[in-house]
Amino acid sequence: MDAPDPLDYRRIMEQALRGVIRTSLRQVAEFGLSGEHHFFISFHTEADGVQIPPELRRQHPEEMTIVMQFQYQDLEVEEDTFAVTLNFNSVPRRLLVPFAAITSFVDPSAAFGLSFTGNGDVTENEDSVAADPKAHTPAGKVVPFTPNRPTEAGG
After folding, report:
1. Strand 72-77, strand 63-68: pairing
2. The pTM is what?
3. How far is residue 101 from each of residues 18, 33, 42, 50, 65, measured CA to CA in Å?
4. Is residue 55 within a helix (H) or strand (E), and if so which, with residue range?
5. Per residue in 89-141, pLDDT tens?
6. What domains lie within the chain, and their CATH numbers?
7. Per-residue CA distances from 52 to 83, 94, 142 (Å)
8. Max Cα separation, the chain?
């Protein structure tokens, strides 16, 4: 059996782009969201290390999208994870999400989005972004942002 290629560029690129998310969240943890910036973050709820309340896991057994805009608290960003408290039906809930579990990250105000397929592929597009929290798009596909869509939590 061959050893893994240390120059696996897809894996390296995915790690670098997840670093964009980490850096963005660290900036928000330190300075808050400025202007019109807000984030749609989708992640696999069954991924290793994801910690969400059982009722949310039942409602979102595979994937969940959260919105960080006005009502988020206690954002903490580590090297491999972030944790945040969001309100779900006016009840605060703490979530811990590994960066590796993220399937998409979108800032509609900047027309910026990243979409991860989970197999090392990533798409990035500054002109169109995947921000429909109800969309289940094919892996790696980036779809246009459409305002005024319902959101899962946050806001």
Report:
1. unpaired
2. 0.74
3. 10, 23, 9, 7, 12
4. helix 54-59
5. 889 999 999 999 999 999 998 889 999 875 444 444 433 334 443 333 333 33
6. 9-125 (2.30.30.220)
7. 10, 7, 26
8. 53
